[in-house]
Structure formats: C-alpha cells, structure tokens
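tool=predict chain=A
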Amino acid sequence: MVEWIQSNELQDYLEAVAFMESRASRIRAGEAHEAIWLLEHPPLYTAGTSANEGDLKDPDRFPVHQSKRGGQYNSHGPGPRVAYVMLDVAARGRDVRKFVHDLEEWIIATLAEFNVTGERREDRIGVWVARPEKPPLPDGTPREDKIAALGIRLRKWISFHGISINVDPDLSHFDGIVPCGVSGYGVTSLVDLGLPVTLADVDVALEKTFSQAFGTQDQD
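tool=predict ok
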C-alpha cells in the first residue's frame, strides 16, 4: 500500500526532513505503509551531497539547507511541486539505478499528460525540454531548459527526498544558484511553457502515472 499525503500549506524544510526520516524508519520496521508526500516549501535552497560551494551564487538570498539527498543545489519553492517518496526499494528489487530511472520515467509520464516531452540527458541531471523557439547557444547547440529535478537518499533500503517538477515557480529564484551544477542552460516551468496548469492538475497526473513507472498504485 502506498499512502498519498497532500499538504496545502507551505512546509518547513527541516520539519519535512524529520517527518521523512521518521516515516522511513517506521516503513522499515513494518509499522507504516509506503508514502508519497505532495507539498511546497517557502523559498529556500538545498545543497545535496555533491554540491559545489561555488554554485551558490547568492548565499544571502534565501535560507540554505545542507541536505543528505543526492545531487547538488536546487531551489524549492513555492511553485515547484515537490513529491517526497518514502518507498521500499528492497521490495522493489534492490536496484538503485532502476529506482532512479523509474523516478525519471514518472516525471516524464507526468509531463506527457500535458503534452510536454520531457527527456533525459546522459551528461546532465534532471528532466529537460527542448526550446526550439529560443535562439541556440553560442556554440550552436539547440536550446534546452530544465523542468524537473530529483535527488534521493536511502536508509536501510527505504527512500526519502524525491522529485520536483516546476509548475509555476518564480524562475528568478534559480538565478542564485547553478541548478544541479549544470551551467549554460535555462530553467523553465509548465506555466512558462504557456500551459495554464495548476499544482492540483499536476497532483492528479502524478497519481495517474505512478503505476506506469512503478507498476502499482495501491493507496490509502
């Protein structure tokens, strides 16, 4: 069983981490179901375990939290739909690479619900969309923007942290960091792409497409 939790108020980051750690421990002990938590945070930056200090360009702009998730710097809110995934990776095959692939597939399937083509890039983290309407990069490379990020942590094979899809954030917040350590590319959102999409719309799509990526959609 996967319990879907939704919070409509902005969630304090440290309190959210404490909740995830507690829930992960309870899942591991067999005392709680797996869970997916849909939420937003107030404006803040997080630094993953691979973060380069030089990628924090404006350290005084928002609170900065050192996170034990994988990845580098990201901007969290409000406006991105954050989905924290507290799932039993051992029960799902003990394959971390496949688990990350499935998270990416979940993002891509969710974007497809809005006729947006999300793509992986071998040399870049996250999910990307082509922007053919924009001028190419100085070296002639077609323009692409990042629309979603992911970073997880495992504790005794239970995951926490998760994914973030840009629905309608203030994109200028990303100016204070090098998002996920990738420079030279932009950041976009569903609304920036001209789509009148709300967080509620994305929530419906996330629940609908979860089974496409993970093969089950039991819920409380």
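The mean pLDDT is 92. The chain has three helices and eleven strands.
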